[in-house]
Amino acid sequence: MSPKAKPIDADVILDAAAALIESDGVEAFSMRALAERIGVAVTSIYWHVGGRDALFDSLVDRLVAEMAALPMEGDTPVNRIAALARNQRRLLIRRQHLLAIAHERDRTPTLFLPVQQKLAAELAEAGVTGTQAALVLRAVQVHVTASAVMLFSAVRGPRHQEEDPSLWTADWPDQALVAALQSPTDYDAVFEYGLSAMLAPLASPPRTNGRVRAARSSSA
């Protein structure tokens, strides 16, 4: 007996399409290549998910759902914000090509909205609201997105030097810095350093001038 064929449904097709796009890129994607990967006729794909545009829309919908379901572990608002930022960065790195599809379809605001709303709620719990909350929220999102894009480019893009230590003169006072720049960039460490620096002011409750003066006078 020949082995029983795996049932084909929309989820199977979308899983295969996402894997194909992430491995080969959006430009190399075709419905024929997808059909060959799954082992079905192209007409079967059209039957279950529709044409290329409908398939891409469904992939973006799934990415929106993934973004909305990102976990945010931690016992304080700052810890939860940090966890959410890390998880969002990992997802953006893993789904970089799908992110490009979302951008082309003008779905980026919708894609990022769930994370932004979670960040806003945690900032409010930390006592940060209004224009200050908007600034912190945007700073976190820019940091996450820029870090993901830079790491993705470094891994999948053409090899190139990020720094050229030879451009630093021998009389530069910090030669340890020049030597350190010869090593490859640790993007994870850079991300964590920036994230910690960004969230550090939120870790301590804001203090008024009166309270600071009171603390100083009591310790005198």
Automatic annotation (TrEMBL):
What is the superkingdom listed in this entry's lineage?
Bacteria
Q: Which SUPFAM superfamilies match?
A: Homeodomain-like (SSF46689), Tetracyclin repressor-like, C-terminal domain (SSF48498)
**Residues in HTH tetR-type domain copies:** 7-67
Does the record carry Transcription as a key word? yes
Coiled coil start-end: none
* GO molecular-function terms, A-Z: DNA-binding transcription factor activity; transcription cis-regulatory region binding
Q: Which UniProt keywords apply?
A: DNA-binding, Repressor, Transcription, Transcription regulation
Q: Does the keyword Transcription regulation apply?
A: yes
According to the entry, DNA is bound by residues in: 30-49
Q: Name one GO biological process term.
A: response to antibiotic
Q: Record's InterPro entries?
A: Homeodomain-like_sf, HTH-type_TetR-like_transc_reg, HTH_TetR, Repressor_TetR_C, Tet_transcr_reg_TetR, Tet_transcr_reg_TetR-rel_C_sf
Q: What is this protein called?
A: Transcriptional regulator
- The organism named in the record is Mycolicibacterium neworleansense
Taxonomic classification: Bacteria, Bacillati, Actinomycetota, Actinomycetes, Mycobacteriales
